Amino acid sequence: MVTRPEMVEILEGRALSKHLLENYSRNPNGWSFTLFPSAKEDSGFFGAIVGSHTETWQLKLDSIFKSNPLMLGAKVESTERASFRQGNLSYGYRRLDATVAFELLRRLAKAELGDQDNSQMKLELERILGRIKPVVPVSGESYAQGPFILSDRKSLGITSEQKQLEDRLSVELRKLLRHRYLSYG
């Protein structure tokens, strides 16, 4: 069954974040978070595909460069769902104790000094973080969050239904920006 983009429910900001966190909290394993620049006509918006084995959401964000972007999202039906996970490390919150955090910082500093190339550093990070299972975050603890995969649109294999949904999310995000910021064109 393919859902027509004009008939899907769109969640905004806090409601969307709350829904995704509740679903993540039920089972923090096997998640992915893939970001991609939207089509040129989207004025710099970003798209994202976020999901697990049981549910996938298509998002539209006004920016990835601020801590609290405006975002909208809609659930992607199972027949439209594709595997967007890239790499060996699933998305999640991984609790970091001081020893692991120090080890990560030490390895990053070593890489910055030119002792390791980027591919070797990526393997080291995956090795260290891969041993730590994703967990449900608790206030007051330290976590590594990610990975967020940044990809191009073409390599994701977005379906025509997802493209239509992406277009609708862009229109709705523009409306939201105009409503919140009167000077927005």
Supply the key terms:
185 residues, two-stranded antiparallel ribbon, six-stranded mixed β-sheet, globular, alpha+beta, 2 domains, 20% strand
Main sheet, how many strands, which sense, barrel?
A: 6 strands, mixed
Number of helices: 4
Strand arrangement within the widest β-sheet reads 1-5-4-3-2-8
Q: Which residues sit in consecutive blocks of at least 5 with pLDDT less than 50?
A: none
The radius of gyration computed from the alpha-carbon positions, rounded to a whole number of angstroms, is 18 Å
Q: What spatial form do the alpha-carbon principal axes imply?
A: globular
Number of domains: 2
Would you report the number of β strands? 8
Mean of residue pLDDT?
Answer: 83
Strand percent estimate: 15-25%
Distance between the termini: 37 Å
Q: How much helix is in the residues?
A: 25-40%
Elements, N to C (H/E): EHEEEEEHHEEH
Report on the structure:
The chain is of the alpha+beta class and 185 residues long. The chain has 2 domains: 5-88 and 143-180, no CATH class; 97-130, no CATH class. It contains 4 helices and 8 strands; from the N terminus they run E-H-E-E-E-E-E-H-H-E-E-H. It has helices at 13-26, 98-112, 118-130, 160-180, and strands at residues 10-12, 32-37, 46-51, 56-61, 71-76, 92-95, 143-146, 149-150. The strands form 2 sheets. A 6-stranded mixed beta sheet has the order 1-5-4-3-2-8, with helices on both faces. Strand 3 and strand 4 form a beta hairpin. Helix 2 (98-112) runs antiparallel to helix 3. The longest helix is centred in the C-terminal third of the chain and has 21 residues, at 160-180. It is globular, with a radius of gyration of 18 Å. It starts with 9 loop residues before the first strand and ends in a 5-residue tail after the last helix. The mean pLDDT is 83.
